[in-house]
Amino acid sequence: MNLDINQIALHQLVKADDSVLDMVLRDSLLPSNNRVVQEMMVELHRVYSAKNKAYGQFNEDSEFANAFKRCRKGNDDFLSFTRRATARLRDELIKYPFAESGVLLFCQYRHLATEYLLIAFLNSCNSMRVDEQLDLSITHHLDINHVDIVARVDVTEWETNNESKRYLTFLKGRVGRKVSDFFMDFLAASEGGDTKKQNRDLLQAVDDYCAEANLDQEQKQAYRQQVYSYCNEQQQADECIELKQLSEALPVFNEKNLQQFSTEQGYDIADSFPVDRPTLRQLTKFSGSGGGLTINFDALLLEKRIFWDAATDTLTIKGTPPNLRDQLKRCLG
């Protein structure tokens, strides 16, 4: 992977017995050409790129953003910037009951033609290792695969496009008050758009477009699969859905492409927006749960092996999976 590290710093917050968060600050930057450092950042970039992200922008009075601007102009050095930022995060984090120890990473790097600043709060995990004498010991490692408190600034976009509201990406919490809230408060940033709504609107536009074109079920599903393939490729490349690009890659019906149809019908779909994988998965799968029942099946099976009667709200399945069939046989004798 073509990833060039410019500057990288690590600091640590340690939760003491009295619930006070102590800081352990490095006195120097990590060596950017170190093999372990490079491998860690490649993995962190890969993991973060594969996750569903929300977009946002700094608030006008963001102390973090203003401090980084001074650093970019050469009025401050990167290490001092990260040390002060760590202190601000500590002050923000102690407001919450879930405050825990962790490693705070700041990395300024370039991937392809874009420069980034990535800030991540990493947890440590224990694991077992076997040494050369075949003795077991406990070792600590950074849990990069499960990182969920992280944000990244597209520095190139931030500095060249004053109108942009999507140069900052971050991960959102899933349930209740978002764990990531304190991180956004620390950055003094706010969300720039509803990613899920944009993806839901795209799905609705696709279905309405297929309906207007009078596509049969097989043609409709083939079209939906093409939409999903494009969006999946964009998500894997850590790129946004470009509505114009997507429309040009799809078949055209009734002399107007998907983007023209969306504009004509008044859909509020942005020209560019991030991928929300759980939402777009509905293009290829049907799923639902409730009342003790969970159903999940490929959309290609509809009207072939799976049939729905809307009048009676009855789903008929022809041909059950072998493991399910065995369970039913054992249960019913």
Automatic annotation (TrEMBL):
PANTHER family assigned: NUCLEOID-ASSOCIATED PROTEIN YEJK, PTHR38772
Domain of life: Bacteria
UniProt-recorded Gene Ontology molecular function terms: double-stranded DNA binding; single-stranded RNA binding
DNA-binding among keywords: no
GO CC annotations on file: bacterial nucleoid; cytoplasm
Annotated compartments: Cytoplasm, Nucleoid
Annotated transmembrane regions: none
NCBIfam families for the chain: PRK00378.1 (NF001557)
Key words, A-Z: Cytoplasm
Listed name of the protein: Nucleoid-associated protein RINTU1_01310
Keyword Cytoplasm: yes
Family classification: Belongs to the YejK family.
